[in-house]
Design brief:
By secondary structure, this protein is of the alpha/beta class. It has two domains: about 25-170, Trna Endonuclease, Chain: A, domain 1 (3-Layer(aba) Sandwich); about 170-210, no CATH class. It has seven helices and five strands, in the order ααβββαβαβααα. It has helices at about 5-10, 40-55, 105-110, 140-150, 165-170, 175-180, 185-190; strands at about 60-65, 80, 85-95, 125-130, 155-160. The protein has a five-stranded mixed sheet with strand order 1-2-3-4-5, with helices on both faces. Helix 3 (about 105-110) links the parallel strand 3 and strand 4 (about 125-130).
């Protein structure tokens, strides 16, 4: 029998609006663990997910945003295609300041209901739900397990990319960090912050990010 909490959640509608881009907050000056993902807004968050998807799946040769005005997205924002042009990996991006565990199910249902329609015969093997919060509570973990089992019955692997996981995927790519955030976040997310780093000492003449400094050498280990 469904609990009262489950019944109430079924009557709710999850967040579906677009989050606007806001000013990127500066890092604290100490090493950071998570990027301020919500600040980039929904549109850029989808672009960010597109940028980090391909390196994670060896069969994906090219990635595209499923964002065309007036065209239904079938529960997906990003598609990763293999050599046969099948969308073998699909991703749903949710950019919100706060997310409740019960929202996972209706968001994934937006994709699931089209498995026998739009997605039939397209060889989707992996579904990613990317969120801008840290999924570190029991309710979110339980929701993820339940949804993983549901998708597994259709031969699809479920992945939950929370803010911590996404930050880890971004951490070693200073060019992407600079593109979506700024050079100060490159320093803040690196393993060690040098004393002459611009994010620590703005008056320093040193520069660790070649994207914004002409003729600067790439530090050892960056981008490798």
């Amino acid at each position: 029998m469904a609990t009262k909490k489950q019944v109430n959640n079924k009557a709710k509608e999850p967040q579906r609006g677009k989050t606007p881009e806001t000013r990127i907050p500066p890092p604290s000056g100490h090493s950071e663990n998570v990027f301020p993902l919500v600040a980039v807004g929904s549109k850029k968050f989808e672009e960010l997910c597109r940028a980090i998807l391909k390196p994670e799946f060896k069969d994906v040769l090219w990635v595209a945003l499923k964002r065309t005005s007036g065209v239904e997205q079938y529960g997906v924002d990003v598609e990763g295609f293999d050599q046969l042009h099948d969308p073998v990996v699909v991703l749903s991006a949710k950019c919100y300041q706060k997310v409740d565990a019960w929202e996972f199910r209706p968001w994934i249902q937006d994709f699931f209901v089209h498995l026998d329609g739009h997605w039939k015969g397209k060889n989707v093997r992996d579904f990613i739900l990317a969120v801008t919060v840290t999924a570190n509570d029991d309710d979110m973990n339980e929701a993820a397990r339940t949804l993983a089992n549901s998708l597994a019955t259709r031969g699809i692997r479920f992945h939950l990319w929370d803010s911590a996981h996404i930050s880890d995927l971004l951490r070693n790519d200073p060019r992407l960090i600079d593109r979506f955030f700024n050079r100060y976040w490159v320093d803040a997310m690196s393993a060690e912050i040098e004393s002459d780093s611009p994010s620590v000492n703005p008056t320093s003449t040193g520069c660790r990010l070649p994207l914004n400094c002409e003729n600067a050498a790439v530090p050892a280990g960056f981008g490798t």
